[in-house]
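Readers of this paper often ask what the protein records in our data store actually look like. Such a record has a labelled line for the sequence and another for the backbone structure tokens. Nothing more is needed to write down the fold, since each code stands for a local backbone conformation. The remainder of this section carries one protein's record, kept here as part of the documentation.
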Amino acid sequence: MRSGSSALKHAMLFLVSWMVAQCGNELVAAVPPGQSPSFRQKNGWYDYSAYTDCRGQPEPAQYNGGILRYSNSDDPTGYKTTETGVLSPAFVVYDLNKTTMYTFSGWIKLEGSSSALVTARLAPDNSGTRCIGTVLARSDCWSFLKGGFTLDWPTQTSVIFFQNADRTPMKITVASGSLQPFTMDQWSMHQKDTIRKRRKRMATIHVADPHGTRVVGATVSVQQTAKDFPFGSAIASTILGNDAYQKWFVDRFNAAVFEDELKWYSTEPASGLLRFDVPDQMLAFVRSHRVMVRGHNIFWENQDATPRWVKGLSPEDLRSAVNTRIQSLMTRYRGEFAHWDVNNEMLHYNFYEQRLGPNATADFFSVAQDADPLATLFMNEYNVVETCDDVSSSVDAYVARLKDLRAAGAVLEGIGLEGHFSKPNIPYMRAVLDKLATLNLPIWFTEVDINNKFDAQTQAVYLEQVLREAYAHPAVSGVMLWTALHQGGCYQMCLTDWNLNNLPVGDVVDRLLQEWQTGQATGPSDAHGAYSFSGYLGEYVVTVNYGNTSAQSTFSLSPGDETRHITVQI
């Protein structure tokens, strides 16, 4: 039987030999076994910085390279190049484990092609490969790749390499590579720190008498009455007339989106036959309960989701029909919907652009902006954060399309990420959000669920991971679940059964909603007549009792770094 060290060397040599055969002679060694913990992790803070612009020179490696070390130098900004074709230099990394979050980054440049999608892939212990990050690289400048991964099992020896997605020959140069590990506790610490800074705020209640004299020892009670962060779910016509479902919904959520009722095939099943009665009733329900609502969607590029009568129209008739669609929908609901998904899933499909030309989507945005200038207009796409294996919807493809639309005059103000997850890759999810955050636009998760190929308990585990990461990321402005309830089930994931009994994912949602709100805070005013607390952003009522006297006031905690001061006179 081989010793452990012999087995490790054997595995390493096998992988190295395999990579050399595939990649040429530019293999880069990284992190030999036996390094001290201080070498592997110098501090626990995550670097949210990212770049979506192409630069003349690469920036220094994040975390000073992390656990990567080059074979010829300890300089993590060193350049490594291959001329062997579709594969690039590789990093060999040792002793990765499944209880660690790994974030990976680097700068990429090409020769032999003006631009190409480059994928960073991980080969753990010769057990296949997986995508851990992508970048649209160019030959005239450096592009930033940011991704990450977790493992299902510990590995002795793994290889990280780079691959041109379409496998055409070219030279790939990599600089400033970095692989940084974080423990689960450190990752949770990042989330809690962001929540403290972005979702909460300190407040001080000052208690005074009519003469302005501070009152010491008054009882101060603070209760949150509304949340600032939009957290909601899709609803369908099944909520109409169902009092129990309606109460269940408004007890939990402050945001809604209609599952199908606003889509073109629902509102105009035949040319000129407009049906708005159902969405009108649904809108009345959410309006009566002060629930904000997203408009989903004006157009859907998927031909299978296009009304049957629209598919056979000539380009001239189609152009007339789409203009009528925008006007009829947005004139009727002007000012009612906070958001509109203007042209859904245009990275994957092109029904309208194929027939009306490449500027069709920009025209849709312009007409929609004129029809309802107060609505925030969104792109909305799937597989941007869910996986990096979908070459159609890489984060850089999303960014490029958004920039192209804005350059063409589209007033595009929001980033929609559907969030239909299988098993989530949380470090990759955070890395994608970091890159999208560089655009300084509100980011919404618009259709979150977990694939029903998993059992109920696994769905719950994965949903909690996704929701915690989404809520904690500083660039995320809202979260919508794709959990409209039908008697026969839901699209992929139901929070309850038809009788509104919680399923495991429903328990997760209820627990997080409870966690992300300020419970009743009560205490005495101190020697300065003040009572301080940390509260989640939103609306509050404060009640002050002193002797036989009481007073009540309302206030809001809006985003801000400074302590909010409220004076209550008693």
Confidence is low (pLDDT under 50) at residues 1-42, 70-87. The longest helix spans residues 4-23. The longest strand covers residues 170-183.
